[in-house]
Specification:
This protein is mainly α. It folds into two domains: 169 residues, no CATH class; 178 residues, no CATH class. 72% of the residues lie in helices and 2% in strands. It contains 17 helices and two strands. The chain has a two-stranded antiparallel sheet with strand order 1-2. Helix 8 crosses helix 11 and helix 11 packs antiparallel against helix 12. The chain is globular and about 70 Å long. 51% of the residues are buried.
Length: 373
Amino acid sequence: MGKFKGFLKRKDIILSSKRYGIDALGAMAQGLFCTLLVGTILNTIGQQFHIGFLNEVIVTIGKGEGAVTYTLGGLASAMVGPGIAIAIGFALHCPPLVLFSLIPVGFAANAMGGAGGPLAVYFVAIVASEVGKLVSKETKIDILVTPIVTILVGIGFAALVAAPIGTAANAVGQAIMWATELQPFLMGIVVSVLVGIALTLPISSAAICASFGLVGLAGGAAVAGCCAQMIGFAVMSFKENRWGGLVAQGLGTSMLQMPNIVKNPRIWIPPTLASAITGPLATCVFKLKMNGAAVNSGMGTCGLCGQIGVWTGWLNPSEAALKAGETAMTPGVMDWVGLVLICFVLPAVLSVIFCEILRKIGWIKENDLKLEL
C-alpha cells in the first residue's frame, strides 16, 4: 500500500475534494468561457452590428442538405468539449502527451453527452487525465503508449457514462426550470441564494449552471444571486478596500472574501439576504430571463458576463433556450430597467443596509471585510 501511495504521489495524483471539486470545476468554467461563451458573444456582436467577418461562413463540413456551416464564433463554440477537457487536464497537472490527447476525448464526451455534455466532459476528462498520468513516461515508447491509453480510456469511458450523465444533468436542469416557471417566487429565492453562495464558495457556479443548462427564469434568478454576492461584497466593503476592492470583487469575484467569511461567517448574511430579495424580484416582477449560454447564469458581474448573457439571450437565444421554448425579443425599457436594478442597484443598496444593521449590533466589526490585495 505504501508503494502504491508513493507511486500516486510521484504521478501527482491527489484524490481530494479540492483537486476535483475546486481545481477541476474551476478549470471547467474557464474552458467553457474560452469556447462556448466567447463564441456566443462573437456571433451576437457580428449579427447585431453587421460585422462581415464575424458573420461569414469560414468552414463547411459535409455537402448538400446535410452540410454544417460555421462562423468564427461558431467554431469557438463547437470546441467546448476539447476546451473543457484541456482546461481540466491543465488543472490536474497533466504532462503534454496526456494533455493533448484530451482533445478528442473532450470532443467525444461532449458529443455523446448531448444537452448535458459539459458535465459529461468533466467526469470523463478527470478519469482520462489520471489514467494517462499513470502510464505517462513508464515505457520506452511513451509517445505511442500514453496518447493511445488516454484516448482509449477516455472515449471508452465516455461511451459508458456520457449519455446517462448528460441525460441526468439535463433532467435536473429541466426540473429546476420547470419548478421556477411553476413557483417563480419560491424558486426565485432558492435558485438565487444557492447559486450566489456557490459563486462565493471556492467552486464554480458557472460550471454548475452550464452543467444543468440553466436558462430562462431560473437562469435569471441565478444571475440575480451571483450579482448580489459580487456587487454586495464590493460595495459593503468599500470602507475597507476602496476602489481596488470594488473592482476586484465587483468585476472579478466575491470568492476573495472567503478567508474573511471563515473568520466571521456573519459577513455573508447581507449579500445572501439581498439575493433572497432580488431573486424573486427577477422572476416575478421583471421576468428577467437569461437565455444566452447557460454558463452566463453563474457568472454574475464577472467581466459583465451575466449581463452580456442576458443581452445575447434577448437577441439571439442559445440552443438550450430555444429547446426550452424561448424566442428572440426586442428588449423594452422595463427589461433594461430590470437588468440594471437586479444586477447593480438593488444588490448594492440592500447589502449596504443589511451590513450597516449588522455593524450596529456588533456582528460585523471594523476590518472584518478587509482584503489582502
